């Protein structure tokens, strides 16, 4: 029984770790799509940031510089997306695809040129990355049976970015629903013409939203290479940007529901690792691939309107053409 | 030349040329950034792609895949749809091909094997596109998102099938058993040898003719049939198409199924033509490459064949480049692909206002 309890706690702990980049990336998508710009480039921006963050952390020896460089890389791709889709009214999907492929190729090419290690970055030492933090009072609670374990394993012992990801969601909710910028953001995604009539610049608002998205995506990418792992590896995002996109849709573009979707998808991921090769009596082995595919499957079913309805912001995907 | 015909020329010729040129310039800048001489790199690349028979064979072999996926993306584009699911459709199409071959008796005649495997690829590719198409047409879910999800579903499904179902007993590699020799498509060097010529061995096989045949069929279909007309009308203006009695929902299904089935033929070249068994990730990158090919080829079969050839050159030449220079890898081709998608797709009209102002200014009326 005790073992079982610990397994559950450890699975949940893993859930928190794998959900973190999903949360940050899907919040990035939330800003962008709420402003009316489809962002399938989340994956590429994360990958670019992961690579640049690991490189900068290696060269400058500080995780903070790494994080900053990662954010810069992600933001520049965001601005490129904006330049193509807002300024030149290009297709948002095409631009996103270009960004994803660009990051996938460029990270290897630059990695090879800079470090000569087959596209990897050198392994980071512990002072070059964000390490796990121990929350105060772990020793104090340790003797209390259940709560002590939960506090030690589940709440304590994560790195800074994990705590940031969970704390940022209420803040994002506040920004989106309680500030002037949030109101303008939601308005420009639903009805850009009205925003324009009110004398605000649709383009400027969308650029701002993309910049915030770039920032969050940058943190998500840096988390992968300089906090969760200690190195950049080829294609290390491995579809997480698309899972984040799925979570954004599954969470219906609302911060807290998106958070729940990220936790659900993160849990499925953690579960898939746990269930590898486990035989369930009377059922046989559960195919790990089935659990891995569940987030995608759930999103397809939700989008098809079989469980609830996911209605995107009204103007999403359409470039705004100002009437003369 | 009057202004309209000048604008026409600008849009058809000058803009696409400028866009491709921009993509190449950007690549050259990247070469310089990583300390590779772009001219030397180009020479190596061209030598790898054209310099010797085997290399040229590989170039055409890769181009064959790009023709299939390029046509696939183009057919969907004509209907105003963006089929980003070419990866998944190619993968599942290969599964269909493999299933047909593995189920048939190994001694079956090639005249049954070859059409059978093609039909298998067409059907399974179409099936993998049909579901997203149905969901878009009748349930209103966005086709881009669903096809992205279906790419991931396809790769999970294939990993499962290759590891648990199709793997040859007693083998560690997640591959199917070898296809019956009767099902193999002949290599070009073997065919040529029968006529007394000799060519170096390469994976180039008769699939390239299948790809050219399908290019012709698609050209006829899109520009010379009622259905093709309906697809183009829907893509240009779906509201007007409804007034013309065209049913957009059917067009979505029709165009996506054709698109998926074309992507599904990648397996014919890769598996039946060369590998002779179902392997993991044989399709990798061709689905996305098809987007670049279609954008660059402006959705016309002739443009697609030319663009596919260019990508074949890049793929094969890129391999040569990675072999010759230690500080560069084949991923440079991926970067070029991205730049072509960016400049020929997303930034398609970047130069348009400037160039029209310069070369076709609004003429002042004489009054």
Task: Walk me through the structure.
The complex is a heterodimer of chains A (about 325) and B (about 375). With about 325 residues, chain A is mainly α. Chain A has one domain (about 1-305): ABC transporter involved in vitamin B12 uptake, BtuC (Orthogonal Bundle), CATH 1.10.3470. Helix content of chain A is about 70%, strand content about 0%. Chain A has helices spanning about 1-35, 40-60, 65-85, 90-115, 140, 145-155, 160-180, 180-190, 190-195, 200-230, 240-250, 255-275, 290-305, and strands at about 280, 285. Chain A has a two-stranded antiparallel sheet. In chain A, a hairpin with a 3-residue loop joins β1 and β2 (about 285). In chain A, α1 (about 1-35) packs across α12 (about 255-275) and α3 (about 65-85) runs antiparallel to α10. The longest helix of chain A is centred in the N-terminal third of the chain and has 33 residues, at about 1-35. With about 375 residues, chain B is mostly helical. In chain B, α8 (about 205-225) packs across α9 (about 225-235) and α13 crosses α15 (about 330-345). The radius of gyration of chain B is 22 Å and the shape is globular. The chains are: A mainly alpha (about 325), B mainly alpha (about 375). Chains A and B meet through α3, α4, α11 and α13 of A and α6, α13 and α15 of B.
- Domain count of chain A: 1
> What series of H and E elements makes up the topology of chain B?
HHHHHHHHHHHHHHHH
Give the largest interface pair and sizes: A-B, 47 and 48 residues
User: Helical stretch count of chain A?
Assistant: 13
The amount of helix of chain A comes to 55-70%
**What percentage of the residues of chain A does DSSP assign to strands (E)?**
under 5%
Amino- and carboxy-terminal Cα gap of chain B = 21 Å
Instruction: Describe the global form of chain A.
Output: globular
CATH topology of chain B: ABC transporter involved in vitamin B12 uptake, BtuC
User: Kindly state the mean pLDDT of chain A as a whole number?
Assistant: 88
């Amino acid at each position: 029984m005790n073992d079982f309890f610990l397994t559950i706690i450890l699975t949940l702990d893993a859930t928190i770790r794998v959900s973190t980049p999903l949360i940050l990336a899907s919040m990035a998508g939330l800003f962008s799509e709420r402003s009316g710009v489809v962002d399938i480039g989340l994956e590429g921006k994360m990958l670019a940031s992961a690579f640049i963050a690991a490189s900068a952390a290696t060269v400058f020896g500080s995780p903070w510089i790494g994080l900053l460089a990662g954010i810069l890389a992600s933001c520049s791709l965001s601005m490129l997306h904006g330049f193509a889709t807002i300024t030149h009214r290009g297709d948002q999907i095409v631009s996103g695809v270009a960004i994803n492929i660009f990051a996938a190729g460029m990270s290897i090419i630059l990695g090879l040129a800079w470090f000569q290690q087959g596209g990897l970055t050198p392994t980071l030492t512990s002072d070059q990355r964000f390490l796990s933090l121990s929350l105060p009072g772990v020793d104090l609670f340790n003797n209390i049976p259940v709560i002590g374990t939960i506090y030690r394993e589940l709440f304590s012992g994560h790195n800074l970015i994990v705590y940031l990801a969970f704390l940022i969601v209420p803040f994002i909710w506040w920004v989106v629903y309680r500030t002037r910028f949030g109101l303008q953001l939601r308005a420009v995604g639903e009805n850009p013409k009205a925003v324009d009539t009110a004398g605000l610049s649709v383009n400027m608002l969308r650029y701002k939203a993309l910049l915030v998205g770039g920032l969050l995506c940058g943190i998500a990418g840096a988390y992968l290479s300089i906090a969760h792992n200690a190195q950049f590896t080829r294609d290390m995002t491995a579809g997480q940007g698309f899972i984040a996109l799925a979570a954004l849709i599954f969470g219906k573009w609302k911060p807290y529901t998106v958070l729940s979707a990220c936790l659900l998808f993160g849990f499925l991921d953690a579960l898939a690792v746990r269930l590898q090769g486990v035989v369930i009596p009377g059922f046989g082995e559960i195919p790990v691939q089935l659990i891995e595919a569940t987030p995608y499957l759930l999103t397809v079913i939700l989008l098809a309107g079989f469980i609830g309805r996911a209605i995107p912001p009204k103007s999403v995907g359409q470039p705004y053409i100002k009437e003369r | 030349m009057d202004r309209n015909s000048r604008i026409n020329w600008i849009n058809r010729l000058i803009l696409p040329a400028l866009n491709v040129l921009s993509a190449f310039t950007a690549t050259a800048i990247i070469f310089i950034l990583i300390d590779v001489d772009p001219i030397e790199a180009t020479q190596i690349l061209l030598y790898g792609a054209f310099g010797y028979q085997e290399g040229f064979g590989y170039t055409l072999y890769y181009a064959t895949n790009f023709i299939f996926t390029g046509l696939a993306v183009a057919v969907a584009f004509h209907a105003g749809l963006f089929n980003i699911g070419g990866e998944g459709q190619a993968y599942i199409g290969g599964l269909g091909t493999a299933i047909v071959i593995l189920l048939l008796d190994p001694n079956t005649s090639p005249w049954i094997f070859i059409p059978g495997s093609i039909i298998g690829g067409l059907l399974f590719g179409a099936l993998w596109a049909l579901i997203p198409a149905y969901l878009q047409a009748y349930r209103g879910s966005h086709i881009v998102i669903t096809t992205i999800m279906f790419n991931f579903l396809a790769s999970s499904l294939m990993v499962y099938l290759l590891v648990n179902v199709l793997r040859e007993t007693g083998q560690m590699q997640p591959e199917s058993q070898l296809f019956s020799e009767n099902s193999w498509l002949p290599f070009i060097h073997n065919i040529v040898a029968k006529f007394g010529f000799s060519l170096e061995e390469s994976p180039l096989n008769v699939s390239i003719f299948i790809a050219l045949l399908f290019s012709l069929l698609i050209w006829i279909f899109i520009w010379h049939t009622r259905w093709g007309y309906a697809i183009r009308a829907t893509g240009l203006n779906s509201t007007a198409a409804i007034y013309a009695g065209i049913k957009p929902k059917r067009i979505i299904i029709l165009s996506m199924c054709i698109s998926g089935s074309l992507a599904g033929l990648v397996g014919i070249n890769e598996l039946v033509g060369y590998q002779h068994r179902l392997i993991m990730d044989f399709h990798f990158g061709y689905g996305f490459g098809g987007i670049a090919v279609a954008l660059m080829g402006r959705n016309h079969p002739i443009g697609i064949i030319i663009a596919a050839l260019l990508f074949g050159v890049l793929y094969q030449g890129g391999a040569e480049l990675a072999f010759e220079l230690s500080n560069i890898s084949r991923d440079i081709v991926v970067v070029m692909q991205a730049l072509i998608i960016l400049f020929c797709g997303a930034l398609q009209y970047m130069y348009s206002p400037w160039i029209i102002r310069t070369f076709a200014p609004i003429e002042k009326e004489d009054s």
